[in-house]
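User: Need the bound-state model for coenzyme a persulfide:
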Amino acid sequence: MNFSLTEEQLMIQQAARDFAQNELLPGVIDRDEAQKFPKEQVKQMGELGFLGMMVNEKYSGSGLDTLSYVLVMEELSKVDASSSVIVSVNNSLVCWGLETYGTEEQKEKYLHRLATGQIIGAFCLSEPEAGSDATSQKTTAIDKGDHYVLNGTKNWITNGGTAEVYLVIAQTDKEKGHKGINALIVEKGTPGFEIGPKENKLGIRGSDTHSLMFTDVKVPKENRIGEDGFGFKFAMKTLAGGRIGIAAQALGIAAGAYELALQYSKVRKAFGTEICNHQAIAFKLADMHTKIQAARHLVYQAACDKDAGENYDLSGAMAKLYAAETAMEVATEAVQIHGGNGFVKEYHVERLMRDAKITQIYEGTSEIQKIVISRSILRD
Ligand code: COS
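Assistant: Bound-state model below.
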């Protein structure tokens, strides 16, 4: 394992760090409070190439590796996880899924605009009764010859209101179970496609989460991704990469909270000395630092596995599980180190703690990651 970063990767990391400090940090508290989507910042991230990081340059992407993407996710998430989830979904779930499994026509039609952030995409798998149990899709896509008719509801969809392109997973042939599921590209504005109200969330409040309703929505056959019945595998493959992005987000939240706690502990005084001089605080910082480093190794390893063309189902699941648990733990300790100040918004750590929670839930809960990990180690 060698994680020494190249000159290019260091430059990208620095660019993301600067962007986070200069453009995301001002206003992050207000956006969280008002649940305001970071529209201007998304536009800027598109211009910087952060929205199509791994997309081939031929489709207007940045043509970078997964490790560079992870570095960017980490830096953005230290400051604003609402913005980084938009980056993660657009890169890992939408662009990667389309580029890897889409037809040339689909790529030409959608990827250029998605990769440059002119439009953003959404990935629609979860339903009121199919979150973790993803094969239980109730949304149907009935085959009508040259098109599908889509009916059903999707829940908790990131970029749900702001996206222009939606990758929707639906059941075509119930008899065939997960082998009868398809993934369809649905454009905003297609008749019968309605967007529900924005969810009022605990964390990542600047991101845009909605339910989506489909009533007799006609989707042309050429909008299906992959062969008939490939939809569930498409979702699983895509989510396996998505988990690396969310693991990097969790790592960034943990690192951001730790950095704030470290700085605070060096200036805040109690019992006649800076609080970092008390072992109760110093040991917390030691634990936080150690866990973050361990999470970083798992996340970078998963990214390197993907870049090397190795299977990353296991390493991605381990990275997501460990980084998410670390994010929650470290952010909670960062609030504790800040004491009363940690409980108010101005010090940022309470937001990071609220944002950390979702990393244990979306793109596969921590429990789902344990299913993936245990099945993998028991199979081998
Ligand atoms: N890559 C390719 N194929 C995969 C895969 C992967 N990573 N994981 C599973 N599959 C395939 C299996 O090989 C199987 O296909 P075959 O029958 O052809 O072998 C099929 O998918 C069904 O898999 P399985 O039988 O393991 O399905 P389960 O119902 O037991 O569910 C889990 C498997 C739990 C891993 C899956 O449902 C899951 O990941 N759930 C969480 C979904 C999620 O992340 N939800 C959040 C929504 S996004 S915010």
